[in-house]
């Protein structure tokens, strides 16, 4: 990490300002080589200075504002320089090339944040939250990322590790010094300590599904037989004409996917081809894709035509959906109705039913209430608690839970303390991997490779 790195840290393209970031021991030296301040003098720590970037022949490359930030109180905990150029590709490219010729090397993806982690400014969960913050599409996703970047999950994991460390200390003392005048470690005391940690880890694991939805989006599939209003529903939720709507059954022959935000919750909406028996080869392919979409969805909206009685095709679709994650929309309530909510309740027990017309904005709001409640049911109880949003964190928590349960089983069987210590230590290490206190280099490289350049 002794070398100095540099990258463009603002999005590529044209803009008012573009920033080049430099980090490392030679950052100040590089600045002195290429920057001529308008008022002669040495760079002042944390003071923005106006001047020009010049090349080896003293030709002006750009008119800039520069700031030098001395370690350790910087993003990377190293000396950092930021050069504010005009926001076009040519001045940014020319300035970066000059920085690289002056002794820096091009930064890898996420390398600035990786250095912040390796230098102890951030732990691994906080570093991962930085990318979540950058990629957040809704206010609620942003709020969760900010909490994690501020260390809410890290503090919880450290608390659990300290609880396990206390157990490990007691185990070690009783194993290595059984004849000393120390308090005997009873199996009851062991069980109490380990079970408390187990319950708290389980709470974190239980939050992972909601956390994944807030981070990646709620996958919603709109399904039903042809010409029941699926595409009209998608257009209504998007508030734009995205899908073609006609009275001809089978107009939609492939899945159409769009992203939107419904009251702060990111939603990935998929309009599917109408499901029916057909000899049309192209339509058949679309129908198979429809089935795959609703099998992968977090929530399914089954659209039925309220002006028509249920047909065999409707029953066939109902057989393939999970009622607990299905909303049945009885559409076209502006027409004479022959289909009732009670009939749906008996045919698909456990599914929520909404009877509205998608031509009416109030009907759309009623459906949005049901969609939001799929997430709100979980998040309302967790509003003041911690959400696990990262798949890596969830997997390590589950691995730690397995080791912890093995340790508790061994306690209940009153097995030797040496056996119990192995499983407790395994759980302790898995929790450490979450915050980066015990993690392999290849895992670190994988985590930071997902970052953008310049961050």
TrEMBL record:
Compartmental location: Cytoplasm
GO BP annotations, alphabetical order: tRNA methylation; tRNA wobble uridine modification
Family: Belongs to the TRAFAC class TrmE-Era-EngA-EngB-Septin-like GTPase superfamily. TrmE GTPase family.
Binding sites annotated in the UniProt record for K(+): 227, 246, 248, 251
Alphabetic keyword roster: Cytoplasm, GTP-binding, Hydrolase, Magnesium, Metal-binding, Nucleotide-binding, Potassium, tRNA processing
Keyword Phosphoprotein: no
Subunit composition and interactions: Homodimer. Heterotetramer of two MnmE and two MnmG subunits.
Protein name: tRNA modification GTPase MnmE
Enzyme nomenclature, EC number: 3.6.-.-
Cofactor(s), by name: K(+)
Co-factor binding details: Binds 1 potassium ion per subunit.
Domain (TrmE-type G): residue spans on this chain: 217-376
Residues involved in Mg(2+) binding: 231, 252
Any GO MF annotation of the entry: identical protein binding
């Amino acid at each position: 990490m002794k070398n100095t790195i540099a990258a463009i840290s603002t999005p590529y393209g044209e803009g008012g300002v573009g920033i080049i970031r430099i980090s490392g021991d030679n950052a100040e030296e590089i600045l002195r080589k290429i920057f001529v301040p308008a008022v002669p003098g040495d760079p002042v720590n944390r003071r923005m200075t106006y001047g020009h970037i010049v090349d080896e022949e003293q030709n002006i490359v750009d008119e800039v504002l520069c700031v030098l930030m001395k370690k350790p109180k910087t993003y990377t905990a190293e000396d950092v320089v930021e050069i504010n150029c005009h926001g076009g590709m040519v001045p940014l490219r020319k300035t970066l090339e000059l920085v690289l010729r002056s002794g820096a090397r091009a930064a890898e993806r996420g390398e600035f944040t990786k250095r912040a982690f390796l230098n102890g400014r951030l732990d691994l969960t906080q570093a991962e939250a930085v990318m979540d913050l950058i990629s957040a599409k809704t206010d609620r996703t942003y709020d969760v990322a900010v909490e994690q970047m501020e260390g809410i999950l890290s503090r919880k994991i450290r608390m659990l590790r300290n609880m396990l460390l206390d157990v490990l200390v007691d185990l070690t003392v009783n194993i290595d010094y059984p004849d000393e005048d120390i308090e005997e470690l009873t199996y009851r005391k062991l069980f109490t300590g380990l079970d408390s940690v187990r319950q708290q880890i389980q709470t974190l694991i239980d939050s992972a599904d909601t956390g994944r939805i807030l981070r990646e989006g709620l996958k919603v599939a709109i399904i039903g037989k042809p010409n029941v209003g699926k595409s009209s529903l998608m257009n209504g939720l998007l508030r734009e004409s995205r899908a073609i709507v006609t009275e001809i059954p089978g107009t939609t022959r492939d899945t159409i996917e769009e992203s939107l935000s419904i009251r702060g919750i990111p939603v990935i909406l998929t309009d599917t081809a109408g499901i029916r028996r057909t000899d049309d080869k192209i339509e058949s392919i679309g129908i198979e894709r429809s089935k795959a979409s609703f099998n992968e969805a977090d929530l399914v909206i089954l659209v039925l035509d309220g002006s028509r009685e249920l047909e065999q095709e409707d029953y066939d679709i109902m057989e393939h959906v999970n009622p607990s994650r299905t909303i049945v929309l009885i559409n076209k309530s502006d027409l004479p109705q022959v289909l009732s909510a009670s009939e749906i309740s008996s045919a698909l027990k456990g599914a929520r039913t909404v009877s509205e017309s998608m031509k009416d904005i109030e009907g759309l709001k009623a459906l949005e209430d049901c969609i939001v409640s799929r997430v709100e049911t979980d998040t309302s109880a967790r509003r003041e608690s911690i959400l696990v949003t990262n798949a890596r964190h969830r997997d390590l928590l589950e691995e730690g839970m397995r080791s912890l349960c093995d340790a508790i089983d061994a306690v209940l069987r009153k097995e030797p303390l040496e056996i119990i210590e192995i499983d407790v230590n395994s759980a302790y290490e898995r929790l450490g991997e979450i915050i980066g206190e015990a993690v392999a280099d290849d895992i670190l490289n994988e985590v930071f490779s997902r970052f953008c350049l310049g961050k």
